[in-house]
Amino acid sequence: MAKITSKEVWELAKLLRIDVFFFLATLSTSLPGIALNQLMQDKYCINAYSQNESVCLDLEKAGPELDAVKNGVLKDTTTLKMHITLMTTIPAIILSLILGYWMDKYPGHLRYLLGSASLANICQHIMIIHQCLHFEMGADSLLWTHLVPVFTGSGIIISIGTFTYATRKTPAKFRAVRFTIIEICLFATMPVASLLGGGLLASKPWFPNQLRNYIGVYIISSVLAIIAAVWVMLMLYDAADDEVKTDESQPNVDAPSSKNIETKKKTVKQIIYDIIKPENILHASRTVFKKRPNNAHWYLLSTILTGIIANICYLGEQNIGFQFSQKVYHWSAEQIGNYGSIVIIFPALGALIGPPLFIHKMNLHDTSLAMIGIVSIMVAFLAKGFILSPIAYFFVIFGSFAGVIFVADRSIISRLIHKDEIGQVYAFSSAIGGFAPTISSVFYSEVFTATLDYNPGIVYIITGFLFTIPLANAILLNIKKQKWDLVLIAEKEKETQENKVELTSKK
């Protein structure tokens, strides 16, 4: 592995303006997580189950005589969250393919897409604030506030846009570290959102006649979204510039300058048609499924599919984590926020030190990094499923390297494809991966509600063992890496060429 020079570190630091946006935008969307869960439960408890406010304020600590109400509220909340996931993720599948082509063909539009995504979140927050002021509205009406991200694609724009920009602007040898920095920004939002969101919710309501300070949480979240939108539209001025020179073996392509000139000549009407035409979906699909040397397309497909399985196992906890902690640990929203902000430090540290330690210090391949992450999260999930006591919550320390799974996954994919395929492959992966939150939500919700009364940890046990599938793929990729890794192939070709030149000069 080549060593990173101080000049290259400075060049990497200049790229971090997208990370600032990613942190702010993600924090804006994750900050209301605890508040939304609690708002759903309170609406069900008061409006549907006709309980007093004093009971609903401490429902997690209610006695056995209210077990039926407590379990009913938790099940209804879990089901509603599942419906939200179904409604928001299925349209994202088509949007992902359109957006991937858009970002590849018109990179100059990226900052405006990212800015509009943050502003869309504000519209959603305003709708939820309205429902807080009119608390008598049923909890199910919160479902319709999520139509905003459905129609704008705000969630997938932030994710695809950030990783597309980072991949285009980062040399191959930096990508694992580069993606780690983005993952650190993601992990950093978790303790902040958990601690700040839980603290704001538990504070004195900013508006009268409110059971909790839901509105305060959404106001702060909206402010963060405004800052993110302004930041990205002002700072991401180089999105349309040419990509950095990479180490991969590249196909013959037309000069980018002529392509840019052709793009600039198009009218707005032509650009819109170019973005939404159905051929883009087929083109993105063909890019993924096309035959590659050494059957590398099969490695690409297996990586995408096992990545989806890992996402299904990992993401579903978001749908039941709050209810699980209330049921098993009997924690309040404030306690969940406080404890959650502590335990998330361990995966954040793992994501921070994992890639530099294993890749740049120990010279391990990205696939080895993936194996370490998968084993780490398997242990954490199995411990949480088998040990139903608060101490198991802190067993997350065994999952400290869980965050490197998705760092390694993106880095592996970037080594399998050429730079002009980045947006389309990521978009296709996101589109197919759009099924992951849906499947994950349904699976976690159905298993959790079915086993809530006698063993709510079963869902963690099942998903813990399901991680063996992506683990097997990572092992196979590691064994066959000389066949599919374009960076290693390019390095080998360069070495062979240099040896030929050296032999020629000696003759």
UniProtKB/TrEMBL annotation:
Membrane topology, as annotated, equals:
Multi-pass membrane protein
- Write out the GO MF terms: transmembrane transporter activity
- Residue ranges of the TM segments: 20-40, 84-103, 143-167, 179-202, 214-237, 296-316, 336-357, 393-413, 425-445, 457-479
Keyword line = Membrane, Transmembrane, Transmembrane helix
Its subcellular locations are: Membrane
Q: Which Gene3D superfamilies match?
A: MFS general substrate transporter like domains
In Pfam terms, one family for this protein is: MFS_1
> InterPro entries recorded for this chain?
MFS (IPR011701), MFS_trans_sf (IPR036259)
- One cellular-component annotation, GO: membrane
Keyword Magnesium among UniProt keywords? no
Q: Where does the record place a coiled coil?
A: none
PANTHER family according to UniProt? FI18259P1-RELATED (PTHR23507:SF1), ZGC:174356 (PTHR23507)
Q: What is this protein called?
A: Major facilitator superfamily (MFS) profile domain-containing protein
Q: Which organism is it from?
A: Tetranychus urticae
